[in-house]
Design goal:
single chain; mainly alpha; two-stranded antiparallel sheet; 12 helices; globular
């Protein structure tokens, strides 16, 4: 479901979208109240979100998918996997920083070791040697870091080109862009555009089948992706063990009472 689904996110063209995202962030933080993660953040901007989602679908259909399909045709599997591993290695740098911010020292150390191994023995991350050594990849982001420290997700928000997000995750996205090694490397605009384009084309190619299945199976793909995204983000913030909602606690209490009645 996800992150793709995060289709889970066509994410940012680092240099060209930064100003746009900052402007959006200022607008959002000026008008949005942020509920806790245990509450349903909801979709108060659904009309806007569906409009942007429709725009993103058009970009996906007429630009991203053709490029991704062509990329799959001309790229050998070993190169395809290597490119994915390379960018995954860069994300492990962000993950190490965010795990440190969350005081998850063991995870931060694991991420650092992954980067060291994959950047050297793995030839700049082209080969994922660390996973072969059973070092897990956590891929923590700054949105999760904010959630860890109690910042609620806020309303669901679809970003142009980038896809599903929330007020909190939009803030987190900006921080992650700033911490990304490609940003810190001070690449030229052309180099940054090439690197970012390759990343998103490679990522979209990996999601071709998953997104196609969602579009075929879901009655309302927008609602399906929204609900899956919000649920997954809550799960990620709590490392797979989110607190129960009030409704779930009530159901647990009722089940417990029913068991007591049966026993007596």
């Amino acid at each position: 479901m996800s992150d793709f689904l995060y289709a889970e996110r066509l994410e940012q063209i680092i240099k060209t979208t930064k100003l746009l995202l900052i402007c959006m962030l200022l607008l959002l933080t000026g008008c949005a109240s942020i509920p806790s993660d245990s509450e349903v953040a909801g979709d108060p901007w659904e009309s806007y979100n569906r409009s942007v989602d429709g725009f993103n679908e058009g970009v996906d259909q007429y630009v991203a998918i053709p490029l991704a399909e062509a990329y799959q045709v001309v790229t050998p599997d070993v190169v395809d996997h290597g490119v994915s591993n390379f960018f995954g290695n860069l994300l492990d740098v962000n993950s190490a920083v965010n795990n440190l911010f969350q005081l998850k020292i063991d995870r931060a150390v694991s991420d650092v070791v992954r980067v060291m191994i994959n950047s050297t023995i793995g030839l700049f991350g082209f080969f994922d040697i660390a996973s072969d050594l059973n070092l897990p990849s956590y891929k923590e982001d700054f949105g999760q870091t904010l959630g860890y420290w109690g910042v609620g997700s806020g309303p669901y928000f679809v970003l142009p080109f980038l896809g599903p997000s929330s007020v909190r995750d939009t803030v987190g996205l900006l921080a992650d862009v700033m911490m990304n090694p490609l940003t810190l490397a001070n690449l030229t605009a052309a180099e940054s555009a090439v690197a970012t384009s390759v990343y998103y084309i490679d990522r979209r190619a990996d999601l071709l089948e998953a997104v196609a299945l969602i579009n075929e199976a879901a009655i309302d793909p927008y609602a399906f992706i929204r609900d899956a995204y919000l649920q997954q983000r809550i799960s990620l913030v709590y490392d797979g063990d989110p607190p129960m909602s009030d409704e779930e606690e009530l159901m647990m209490d009722e089940d417990f009472e029913d068991e007591l009645d049966e026993d007596f």
